[in-house]
Design a protein that fits this description.
Keywords: Hydrolase, Magnesium, Metal-binding, Nucleotide metabolism, Nucleotide-binding
Organism: Siminovitchia terrae (Bacillus terrae)
Protein name: dITP/XTP pyrophosphatase
Number of domains: 1
Number of strands: 7
Family: Belongs to the HAM1 NTPase family.
Helix content: 25-40%
Structural class: alpha/beta
Cofactor: Mg(2+)
Radius of gyration: 17 Å
């Protein structure tokens, strides 16, 4: 069976990719299956650059097809921040709650109309026999001035999805996965999976 390595140790992400690649009879492995592989430093200035760095490094190490994603929150009123620093926006050693607090503080004076934002996901697929391909996906929304909901993780409690009338943290996991930026990116990746010759 042909296999693809997903450059993540996140089991939830791995499950989403398994659903996508199983249609093509491909076995999905993750970095959990490669405990000796050191963390790859994300030195890119864009989501795409970081995804490419990770995918190409894993593809080269394992001589296999590899897929990596980089994603985060992009807020228009903050000139695109937190962006590629979404996971560590409040600083090293801080957590999701600290990151949310920093965003809420910075957005305090921003009026309703200017609170537009999106979750953004870049996916890169790399391999020994083809050129690296990147695709992206977004989920549009607005930043609230308080937390709502207890599902999800990261910035979900303050990210309001107007089409649903709820925050990401108020949606069921199934519905969130249908709407998510990663789901949109994976949909955009699918035509490339069909075209690429996985040999």
């Amino acid at each position: 069976m042909k296999s693809v390595i997903i450059a993540t140790k996140n089991k939830g992400k791995a499950r989403e990719f398994e659903q996508l690649f199983s249609k093509y009879g491909m076995e999905v492995k993750t970095l959990i299956d490669f405990p000796d592989v050191a963390d790859i430093e994300e030195t890119g200035e864009t989501f795409e650059e970081n995804a490419i760095i990770k995918a190409e490094a894993i593809a080269q190490l394992a001589n296999s097809i590899a897929v990596a994603d980089d994603s985060g929150l992009v807020i228009d009123a903050l000139d695109g921040r937190p962006g590629v620093f979404s996971a560590r926006y409040a600083g090293a050693g801080k957590n999701d709650e600290d990151n949310i607090d920093k965003v809420l503080d910075e957005m305090e004076a921003i009026n309703e109309e200017e609170r537009t934002a999106r979750f953004y996901c870049a996916l890169a697929i790399a391999g020994p026999s083809f050129e690296t391909v990147t695709v992206s996906g977004t989920c549009e929304g607005k930043i609230l001035n308080e937390r709502r909901g207890s599902e999800g993780f990261g910035y979900d409690p303050i990210f309001f999805v107007p089409t649903e009338g709820k925050t990401m943290a108020e949606l069921t996991p199934g519905r969130k996965n249908e709407l998510s930026h990663r789901a949109a990116a994976m949909k955009n990746l699918e035509p490339y999976i069909e075209k690429l010759s996985f040999k």
